[in-house]
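pasting for ref
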Amino acid sequence: MNRKVLFILFCILFLSGQIAYAMGLSTTFGQVRVDNVKIGQTYSMTKDVDTPFVIKNTSDIELALKIDVLVPKENELIEGYEAIPDANWIKLEKDYFPLPPQSEVSTDILINIPDKERYKGKKYQVYIWSHTIEGTIGIGLRSKLLITIGE
């Protein structure tokens, strides 16, 4: 009886590993820095910074992709940067994609720092988290966006 249970567990773990290996995401937006952002203005990563957010499905299966904006924890911050005070300062043109095998999609990221003097000269860090939302095994990438507010 124990051998059957061990064999079944081995098969489940082996097949899960094969499925996880076959799934994949990649992006060129690993860590991006945007300097001299002005308060009260909206910046388009595609139009103003010429850095579109592109993500690729490197697997042979269709993935359901969700993109979220996350505020980093204190222990995740790069030295000299603070966690962005409000994730709503970052907007995504589109945050959900059906992603066919071996394809890529892009969406614009919009940055808008409120028009408040206290934000001038600050440096903020935020994550753009791309992750699957369907299936038994999830995969994801966290891209780091570093923002320096101009004086």
